## 1
Amino acid sequence: MSQVNTVLGPIDSSELGFTLSHEHITLGAAGTAAAYPGFQDLNAIADAATAALQEAYDGGVRTIIDVTTLDLGRDIPLMQDVSRRSGVHAIPCTGNHLSIPRIFWGAPVDKVAALFIKEIEEGIEDTGVKAGIIKVASDRGGVTENEETVLRAAARACNATGTRISTHTWSPDRVGEEQIRILKDEGVDLNRVYVGHSNDDTDVEYLVGLLEEGVWLGLDRYPGGRTPETPRWEVRTEIVKQLIDAGWAHRLMLSHDHSTPVVQPSDELRREREAFNPDGYLFISRNVLPRLVELGATDADVNTIMVDTPRRFFED
Ligand SMILES: [Zn+2]
């Protein structure tokens, strides 16, 4: 058992229950809510997110790891409101996504790491809410110079506090391998590292290679298939089954990378998002898990992936 920080305070890892390992309550951009009040109706977003997560709670979801960073518009009071009203635990993050603040460019790694450590040990902004995970990101083409600064800072914050790292990758370019190389260079215990977005491709040899390094794997884009080059959800689910059959259920986590559609800037985009995933945070429960069982996975496998593995990820 270990303590895990949520937006409503620390809980015991045994309370996490059915966990989605990479989600967003809402997405925006750093500073826009304060600079441009009214552009987004934050009350409407909070209500929509609460309704979506209440439905998820009724469908069995108990915890989401909310990897919304500063540059993705992290809004701790809104997350607290939604978590309180929906009953779903939300684990907030420090770290950074792809829009790295200019002030970090070329900054000393330790100076950036100190910011992440402060958000873990003292709290995020003035909320007193402590981060429960460290998010980092690299995308097509691999780790850029400024992303490497953040990645190394995340590594040092992980080493200093034991807080887990969750990565955004682009699996067709095998970006996870490059992240692992840098994290190893910083001496990070890879048992504290989750390599996410590892299901935008079907290269099982790449995935097993990552698992053999000792990381946890996030097959956390569902339904997926928004761009023609990435696999549809049915194919993604066959890969999950292949990894279960290869003995890796105890290192796999599933999630959607979903966020509340109401944040889309226009009704047209919102409708497109809703059509893309009408089940929201329950797409996995309603589609993927039944399909896995159809393919021959056991209820115990499903419980391992959705409950035991995320809990163990946070435990020492
Ligand atoms: Zn995401």
Note: The two ends are 8 Å apart (CA to CA).
## 2
Amino acid sequence: MILKTFKLGGVHPPENKLSSGVAIETLPLPARIFVPVSQHLGTPAKIVVSRGDEVKTGQLLATSAGFISANIHSPATGKVFKIDEVPDQSGYKRTAVFIDTKEDIWADGIDTSPDIVREIKLSKEEIIQRIADTGVVGLGGATFPTHVKMMVPDGKHAELLIINGVECEPYLTSDHRLMLEHGEEMLIGTSILMKALGVKKAMIGIEANKPDAIDHLTGLAGQFEGITIHALKVKYPQGGEKQLIKALTGREVPSGKLPIETGCVVDNVGTAFAVYEAVQKNKPLIERIVTVTGNAALKPSNFMVRIGTPVQHLIDHAGGMPANLGKLIGGGPMMGKALVSPEAPIVKGSSGILLISDSTAKRVPLKNCIRCSRCVSACPMGLEPYLLQQLVEHEMWAEAESNRIMDCIECGSCQFICPSGRPLLDFIRLGKSTVGKIIRTRKN
Ligand code: SF4
Ligand code: SF4
């Protein structure tokens, strides 16, 4: 069978899925958690609790503060110790609610039983409201508020829901384990999202290196009208929205536009599961699956972990900090960012923690660009990464914009393939930030 994939660019980094066979383990709560009020794309949420307040698990801590924003709920029962700044995984200080935890007591109205609820009773409007109330955001990494994604703009039409089960980043296995262990709930979540969008069809894309998940979901999908499972050829970055749409439908999202231009809406499998929990159980998004792995990890693991838990707590339960640790990364090795401190909390967008050994953490020695054009061939967006890097280095912002720097999806394929060790993505990220500001200023 010929497996579908996207055509333009892409690379094949070693998969290293060390934890794919490790079942999800629920982590105990640490004594103190740190819950940032900005865990989503858009405006930070507005805090509605005060120092000294007693809170229950699932209680609202901060309320959505704009059209693109999301509610934040308490991931634990306990006392608000203080409201202060905490460094996030990149080292930036974020306002957070510090909670000293006690034994779990859930807020009223949340169904915590393990029973699967299959019948979808809520209307389209009620579903979208529930998703907003429970603070569900995209768990594939973008953290865009899901209820906003469900509101298709005037003049656009959604006809197909795509569920992203690709998990193409090396090492990460949280989505893989979710599909195996919570496949039915994820499929119910997919049906809920279809109802919210008013679409009759959903395609779930999974790379062929997860045959057990493909078989499991294919077996279950027969009970769900309109949902089909699709095995895809293994190629990075197939989990990019634009690449996945192309692989599954052949449609191209135009430069600078959103997937809805092609009639598609894309959500991650983790988001579909969170939507199931929100709509069928009234459970806010207060926990997620996080992979702790890497070539220095002592016990590669998949944890169900409460938001706000310090990264160190996960590492302690994954065998501890290795003596040969060279680098800690939040996310996968291709798109993830160096983690400044293990005291940073897990947030809604945290998919993995990578422990890389000191011997592999070293970058290859930086050499001059040899104009080999490998970065151009690898770019899934048809960009010229070597040129963008030079334009950013020389602060040529207008030229960087006209060479479509904003189309870069920050997949890191160019940097991975470069034989000269050029820090292409580092420069391009910097350039996107500056060019983005220039574009926003021009619009205002
Ligand atoms: S891959 Fe590296 S060396 Fe080759 S053209 Fe791109 S930047 Fe230059
Ligand atoms: S330029 Fe951007 S989109 Fe293209 S390969 Fe590099 S990181 Fe990926």
Note: The chain has a mean pLDDT of 95.
## 3
Amino acid sequence: MDKILINGVIHTMAGRTVSALAIRNGHIALAGSDREALALRTADTEVIDLRKSCVLPGFTDSHMHMFLTGRSFERLDLRGVRSPEEIVRRGRDYIRSRHVPAGAWVVGYGYDHNQFPNPVLPDGKVAQAISAEHPVLLDRICGHVGAANPMALRLAGFGPDTMIPGGELDKDGTGNLTGVIREAALDLIKTFEPKPAKEELECILQEAGRRFAAAGLTAVHSDDLCPEGTDWDTLRAAVSDLETQGKCQVRIYEEWEAPHPEQLRPILKQGLYSGWGDDWLRLANIKLITDGSLGARTAFLRAGYQDEAENRGIPVYTQQELDEMTALCHNRGLQVAFHAIGDGALEQCVNAVEKAMAAAPKPLRHRIVHCQIGDRGLYRRMAALGMGADIQPPFTVSDGPLVEPRLGPERAAESYAWRTLLDCGISLGGGSDSPVESYKPLWGIYCAVTRRCGTDSLPWLPEQRLSVRQAVSLYTSGPAWLAHAEDRTGTLEAGKLADLVVLDRDIFTVQPEEIKNLRVLRTMAGGRVTWNAEESGGQ
Ligand SMILES: [Zn+2]
């Protein structure tokens, strides 16, 4: 036996609590009593005394962007800047201290001009003051508006006559670009930054993995194969390298954005399907984005916005287009993860899956990512189709104040309705959408259980709060089911992968307010320690 863990409060999430686990070859050999486990001890067994700490299955984030999160740690950090001068200062320091070679992109993130004495959006001049020898792009905290210097604009081919659907390039009085760019134009310019080569990607994945392990994560469902992300071949090569060196910290279930049939072609040509891969990297889903966001009033609704009655948001697909894309994936064994926020978008997705399933029933678990606005009728249809939902509990806290003004009380009551989704029989995974929200699962669990922003605020739709057990399932057994991995992960039982997290106190007995303050003492993936607070001197 490789390792034996004793004297713990081990919640298997499979209906029982035990005190010991025995681990061999990366798998759990036994979940039981200390006596049963110690009976398996051999000369080379490492015995770990858990000193009554709480053990759960390792956490899985069911929707995030690992690559973008990892890269955000290396970006020019502009959070908290107080003036355009400070942006320039930090930018110049960044280039100097990191020896960024001329011609390489400098991307800054996180400024909020409302914090400046004179709250004017930084423009191309600010970016140019950082450097004229580098393409410089500054991204506001919201990600909807930014600023680019002339070199960045030139590399993207942006000029005074450029038209970008859904995007804007601001101009001054004489018709010249100011460098301020908005929405789709900002998304587009980001794609001109060269993709990292394999070695750089390995560094990014390792840095993200180190932080994820410290937060108790052992797996992520990650959407990285997108325009500003990376590509499948580089990702596979990078993970395989890390795997050979025993350096993988989290298992990756990859989502692949393929909005049109021509983007699906290479996937189909390689014969890929959902579940293809090994325990460190698998292809999980094809991601189809079907609408926008509630904040920007682009989420597609069945009826107009409460605060803008003639607007119903923007569907990305017609029903027929979505039916065709869904059938194409479904028939080749590819599960679809549909980004749907509005009830209009959700209805389109459910219609499409209904048609695909009726034509060719398959045990696929298509899912709705976000699934924020809907009603029981739609949720029941989802459940009947075996669809899952991928919810982001931290959004309850950040979007909460927006929901009623946008939707009115009636629609708001069945939206972000995690308990209603469960009552309707839908399997749920919990995600962070990191880097949008914190990737820390304990924060997500806290948000799902309390649905409140701060200690003083009241819970939002308190009847939709989840029990601690339900909330823990969002990050353990729920994502395992969504990925068809319930026979390998999600609970602590003999035969499963030894993926687990050790917490300083019992999540089931502390006050809900304390869940966000629990400390991750140790994380193991495949029986290997990926985080140890004692060795790393705290989080
Ligand atoms: Zn996302």
Note: The radius of gyration is 24 Å.
